[in-house]
TrEMBL record, chains A, B:
Chain intervals for the UniProt region annotation (Disordered): 186-209
Similarity comment: Belongs to the class-II aminoacyl-tRNA synthetase family.
GO cellular component: mitochondrion
Protein name per UniProt: glycine--tRNA ligase
Description of how the protein assembles with itself and partners: Homodimer.
Catalysed reactions, semicolon-separated: 2 ATP + H(+) = P(1),P(4)-bis(5'-adenosyl) tetraphosphate + diphosphate
Described function: Catalyzes the ATP-dependent ligation of glycine to the 3'-end of its cognate tRNA, via the formation of an aminoacyl-adenylate intermediate (Gly-AMP). Also produces diadenosine tetraphosphate (Ap4A), a universal pleiotropic signaling molecule needed for cell regulation pathways, by direct condensation of 2 ATPs. Thereby, may play a special role in Ap4A homeostasis.
An example Gene Ontology biological process: mitochondrial glycyl-tRNA aminoacylation
Subcellular location: Cytoplasm
Residue ranges of every copy of the Aminoacyl-transfer RNA synthetases class-II family profile domain listed in the record: 224-613
Length: 727, 727
């Protein structure tokens, strides 16, 4: 189900148990969050494969395609990873000492630094590289703006209420949960193996109450599976019909919930002391950029094309948030609005730089045929053969790919999925999502849509602001045509209350009609105008009130509303996928349980260097301080761990934090000024003078050298790293 | 008036026309924004000088001390500056095409980059330099948290309403405005010169309606002046009395407004689909840090002291925001919470590094004596003589000073003002504001408070969470005392419903009482406990239910709640002051009006380098592209201006944007690969090969070389810069 109601995307000709007569109503905006996760349903393997989109897929449904693994290709133990992330305070439920609030998370120091580094690279990769105009607009947004954009009316999910305990349920999730429980009960009755759905234990317990082994008719099973396969295509009324038809009841109470009603997902508030200025927390950062278009164009000295960009928090009041960082109520977005002339096929002057880059594309034709196999194709080829609509869109797809690669996303876990024709808003030309494979399945992390002129047009229409480009024409354009001239001074007083209506009717005439009227005027000194609703619908207008002339004029300026290509990044989702993609475990030397490692590239690693004095010996202090200072001067972030834990433990802790390099200060250092440098992934070490080590670190962090380079340049150090304490 | 009601700070023994009987009620939190601007009132020059604090002082009141100037010491033309900031899109009213919303501003590209650079330096100066633990907590905050912190009850201003037109007025502003208008009318009647108050023309026009030259009694003038001098000390009831006593009427309607009521300044919303979880947008970033204390301590491997830090948006629903960026409804804060053991005089291990730094201090004794003259004193001296309470607080004051200096704040326009005893919350030990002098007067931009253990204590008490430090004692502590042991198995069943009450009464006994009870038990085999409310208030407890023993125990752990030192930065205010402090104008060569320059230090300048091709000649394109790439590799942000404007115009535009360096590509470049480098402030230029110029820029931006160094190293270029077009 989309965030914008109604939901006009019936994706396959599959005949559902309830007919889906979804009108092709304009969905005013489909942003990156609206179809967050692609889901593949495997209920009816012998039937033609069907597909649907879910807000939150469970692992079970991804069985066919899920290959979420550690960096080393081993199965990912999500529980172990999550426990580690919690222990190392990457993120933590907000307000936990007050019992927490679902869908809200705080980032602890490593999560916060990781996020800041991703943003920093994003800024360099997009804003600086492309001279984009960054803006920082307010989160508080008055009602009128979001009314015009369509969010007030359509940015909603369906919810229903349990009449007994008042529990509020997201309608599509509810239908899904109950039908799945019945199918599960059926499987148990048939003696088939039932896979456990991953969920929090509290919920499972509650649900299992209603779960007795009950066999269903084969036809019913098929019907349920078909409903589930297209659960996201039903609107509220249809979900209500499903609830009635199958007598779906809340396991907690045994009651049928109320008919679904639309629940707007924006947080509402009131701006100022009187309550007459209702406002919302923005659900995306885009609107502020659109509203500033005219000023940004002027700032850019009128030159087109150009892009604005914004990094900031957005808010969506989820009915029942789940899936950790993937579906939250407050989240960081980075959005680009690239404004381009709709004429000239949206060419991009730097497209040649990226055209050979190959992407894994899952186009809409493939999806329509029920396939999920991606094609590896160069973006140049994809634009040439029309798979991707235009160069600018293609350019950004390639740039998104390069960005994800740069920050350390696993290249084998990125694909670009095209939106289906009926999944997009009516005004959009083309839309692709960058999806990353995680243990939650394929997760939409970046959306990239060609939004045509929609946004600027609706705001301009509402406010009268000229959100347009005035382009000086290279060659002035001469236009000859019939023009009407009304003598307003006489016209109004003559026709009195009907004046406006008659004037509008005259102005609405076509060139052909005007030619005819001109002849009539020439001949009779008056014309008869058709004005429905005034008198008998025919109005006589004399030549002293109206002139119709064949006029020539020269236009030097062309006015147009730019089109918008919008790459939109969900930073929290990218961050989570990045963690999964860089996680692996290695056996500890002590032989106890495997230890986690996060192999972040140095550029995004929360801390670049750990400085470890061998012991708490005071002689080490000045050396440690000097090293910190040298690293700071080199622009490299470091932390000192002078705790009493063994060196091995301290390094192990930092492997979990993803710190790529470690410097040990020992008694040898006090003698000859050498320190050791340890590389996180190999745990190999070199030893050299402080300044050589600092220079090596700088080169490693800036990416100008690899660890192999360093090993070939500096002497290897073979001392053991684990459990060295004081000699 | 403070943000926390009631307002317990009557600052002088001045006998006001309405007695101020303000109880010393606990103001639970006075944050940096609460007393934003120090105001000096000059109404009664012959009377002893009085003072008061205002949210928004007008220029007029600063007459005595205002020396807001340009960087070159000339009078600051605020209108010209504001027009330039608007033209260059540093910031702009949000939603302007929809008519705007007061108190909300968007940052355009230069403002956004300036803000990002300030934040970047802040992060390096504080977080990285001091190994602080940065966290990113949510803005959405549930009701309970802000109830405990005191914001729900006390974070408010007084407002009243016009009964006729419904206009909502901030009560203190209203009283101030009307009395000032009367004093002005009186002055006019006396034929004295009236200074214009700077305000928006609309308002002035409205107000001038009521302004006829009316002479007042001398006694009345004195009374009004006394009221105005302490306008911030009145609570709502007292403001209401003033309105009645002086028959103050809204000039727009001629009506007396309703009695003032408290208006909570937090934006309220509702979290989740049911309305049973009310929440607010946080008014400060501090609470999230306090709530995560236990996890942060663990992350820091239990070591004290440590600091957390947070950079993020906060929200305050101002009744009637004015003063541009200085009082807004959505703003960026950077806050540090430094947690320190209250024992040991809050020493700081790096205090010696800063103790010689001299600050301009305005301590509370000076203020009490009616003076405003600051003392220049080293922070070491200030802590030694007790002016500043402790080393940790002093350390941060010095670090704040260094930070402000680093980003380019004028050193002659910083002072540190101590809060008066009754201006602080009851639990605070000491509090200093870094105030910056602007055309709005002295503006509080950073607060630095010692908040004692208040915040952690209230949250711990409310939630039961152990927001404490458990410190292993170097020397175990032996304690001998009377302990009571209740046999719970028998005690409960014996006393039934009264059990809990009786148990509490036993546990509440003092050591002395226990000694007495032990003797009694020894003698009688039972004791009589006073338990008010149970039976006749005397309860007999026998020795099989209760034992009272003299016990010895050894404690290895000390538990304590840390104290918090909180430096809190208003980034928008600092940004605005930074702009004013770096603004100046220079005569243009053409002789037309003076042109603005913003002499930002390279480190904060929105863009470091402007690349200017002499003309649109295509041969320049590859050179320009290469230079951009070289600068990017050197980590220096640049922009290309290849518009058709003259070189002089292009540089002039960038002087207004504060771009410190310019590189010109001309026909000579195509011959010998040399380019010119221009310095913004002197407009002098050198010429050399591309790589030498890039290296020079890198050194200038990193601050390792000055422009003088560069001039001594590279040949000066004497070509004129203005109005060179194509040769």
């Amino acid at each position: 189900m989309k965030r914008f109601l109604p939901t006009p995307h019936l994706l396959s000709p599959l005949a559902g148990p309830i007919a889906l007569n979804l009108p092709k109503v304009a969905a005013p905006r489909v942003s990156w969050f609206s179809v967050p996760v692609r889901r593949f349903t495997a209920f009816a393997p012998s039937a033609p494969r069907t597909y649907a989109y879910a807000k939150f897929p469970t692992k079970k449904k991804y069985k066919m395609t899920t290959t979420a693994t550690t960096l080393k290709g081993e199965p990912l133990d999500k529980a172990a990873l999550e426990s580690m992330l919690r222990r190392r305070m990457f993120y933590t439920p907000s307000f936990e000492v007050y019992g927490g609030v679902s869908g809200l998370y705080d980032y602890g120091p490593p999560g916060c630094a990781l996020q800041a580094n991703i943003i920093d690279l994003w800024r360099k990769h997009f804003i600086l590289e492309e001279d984009m105009l960054e803006v920082d607009c307010t989160v508080l947004t008055p009602h009128d703006v979001l009314k015009t954009s369509g969010h007030v009316d359509k940015f909603a999910d369906w919810m229903c209420k349990d009449p007994k305990n008042g529990e509020i349920l997201r309608a599509d999730h509810f239908v899904e949960d109950v039908l799945e429980a019945r199918l599960k009960a059926d499987k148990e009755a048939r003696g088939q193996k039932v896979e456990e759905k991953e969920e929090d234990p509290k919920k499972k317990k509650k649900k299992s109450k209603g779960l007795e082994a009950v066999k269903l008719d084969d036809a019913v099973v098929k019907e349920y599976e078909e409903v589930l396969a297209q659960i996201d295509n039903y609107n509220g009324e249809q979900l209500g019909e499903l609830i009635k038809k199958y007598d779906l009841r809340n396991p907690a109470t045994g009651e049928q919930p109320s008919p679904p009603v639309a629940f707007n997902l924006m947080f509402q508030t009131s701006i100022g002391p009187s309550s007459n200025l209702p406002g919302y927390l923005r659900p995306e950062t885009a609107q502020g950029q659109f509203l500033n278009f005219a000023k940004l164009l002027e700032f850019n000295t009128g030159q087109m094309p150009f892009a604005s960009a914004s990094i900031g928090k957005s808010y969506r009041n989820e009915i029942s948030p789940r899936a950790g960082l993937l579906r939250v109520r407050e989240f960081l977005m980075a959005e680009i609005e690239h404004f381009v002339d709709p004429e000239g096929h949206k060419k991009h002057h730097r497209f040649h730089e990226v055209e050979d880059i190959e992407l894994e594309l899952l186009d809409r034709h493939t999806q329509l045929s029920g396939q999920t196999k991606t094609k590896r194709v160069s973006i140049g080829q994809a634009v040439r053969d029309g798979t991707v609509d235009n160069e600018t869109l293609g350019y950004f797809l390639a740039r998104i790919h390069l960005f994800l690669k740069k920050i350390g996303i696993d290249q084998t876990k990125i694909r670009f999925r095209q939106h289906m024709a009926n999944e997009m808003a009516h005004y959009a030309c083309d839309c692709w999502d960058a999806e990353l494979l995680t243990s939650y399945g394929w997760v939409e992390c970046v959306g990239c849509a060609d939004r045509s002129a929609y946004d600027l047009s609706v705001h301009a229409k509402k406010t009268g602001a000229p959100l347009i480009v005035r382009q000086r024409l290279d060659e002035p354009k001469t236009i000859e045509e019939w023009e009407v001239e009304i003598d307003k001074k006489k016209f109004g007083p003559f026709f009195k209350k009907d004046g406006k209506t008659i004037e509008a009717a005259i102005l609405a005439t076509t060139q052909e009609e005007r030619g005819q009227l001109a002849k009539e005027m020439e001949a009779n000194g008056k014309v008869i105008i058709n004005v429905p609703g005034v008198g008998d619908g025919k109005v006589e207008v004399s030549k002293d009130l109206l002139a119709i002339k064949w006029q020539k004029r020269v236009e030097y300026i062309r006015e147009y509303t730019p089109n918008v290509i919008e790459p939109s990044f969900g930073i929290g989702r990218i961050l989570y996928a990045l963690i999964e993609h860089n996680y692996w475990t290695r056996a500890s030397e002590g032989g106890d349980e495997a230890r986690g490692v996060l192999s972040f590239p140095p550029a995004v690693a929360p801390t670049k260097v750990l400085i470890v004095p061998l012991s708490s010996n005071k002689d080490f202090t000045p050396v440690v301080r000097k090293l910190s200072q040298m690293l700071r001067s080199a622009g490299v972030s470091s932390r000192v761990d002078d705790s009493s834990a063994s060196i091995g433990k301290r390094y192990s802790r930092n492997d979990e934090l993803g710190t790529p390099f470690g410097v040990t200060v020992d008694f040898q250092t006090l003698k000859d000024g050498t320190v050791t440098l340890r590389e996180r992934d190999s745990t190999r070490q070199v030893r050299a003078e402080e300044d050589k080590i600092i220079e090596a670190i700088r080169a490693l962090v800036e990416g100008t050298k690899t660890w192999q380079d360093i090993e070939s340049e500096l002497p290897l150090f073979e001392g053991q790293e684990v459990d060295i304490t004081v000699r």
